[in-house]
Request: fold
Amino acid sequence: MLKIAFDPIYAHPLPEGHRFPMLKYELIPAQLLHEGIITKENLFSPDLISEDVILKTHEQEYWQQLRDLTLPAKEQRRIGFPLSARLIEREMRIAKGTIDGCEFALENRVAFNVAGGTHHAGSNWGEGFCMLNDQAIAANYLLDKISAKSILIVDLDVHQGNGTAQIFENELRVFTFSMHGDKNFPFRKERSDLDIPLADGVADEEYLDILKRILPELISRQQPDFIFYLAGVDILSTDKLGKLALSKEACKERDRFVFQQCINNNIPVQVSMGGGYSPQIKDIVNAHCNTFKTATDLYF
Reply:
């Protein structure tokens, strides 16, 4: 059965100017339920992640400042909004949802988190609306709990996964692959194991050609036990922040190709949804829903 982490707190209201992007977290499961793609049995609400698991990835001082709401104002500005207890709870549930998704994927090949993809959070910083790096936390959980020998993080959000790259810069068992806009946020990038910077305006054919050339070779070389997929839809031409020019059809083909590689190589995959900032919320929701639909068609 397809399992999807979702909790109403994912759509927790934020200060004015940040509420619109959060609407998708309510609308994605609602749309999938409406279309009959999933039932309520597919959805699960994660608990809070424990501190000891967080501290496998994030430094203690940073985590305590988040938890106690004492992070300096300058660091809160770097994150993009002021801290609150509700916001920290949201991050903790998102991270636990990704860990739970890993457990489900180990049994059922694939699992989703409606939120997540908080790849700008480093070991001791938050940035770009990211505070706890859900897929990095889950990768360390797998290394620790199931003794995974090789993990591949496939980050196809339009923004580089700088936090993820920094967290795993000295961890040979985790290979970080980020394919992102070269002239886009973050403007100070970290070094992933493999970075593919894309010029502004890259469209369907070029994007898919690059991905289809690189990913199979990467899987063949790394032989991962597990794959994390960050499926941002800010690569769309409609995205106000993305600077790329992909169609919805190409975004869906991207998802199909990633899933097919996981299936062909019998590798479980956990999917976090990442960014999407098109002015029309329907464009964001439909593109994200296509990721779920594609997985359902291929796996179930």
Notes: The mean pLDDT is 95. The domain at 3-299 is CATH 3.40.800.20 (Arginase; Chain A). The longest strand covers residues 174-181. The chain is about 45% helix and 10% strand.
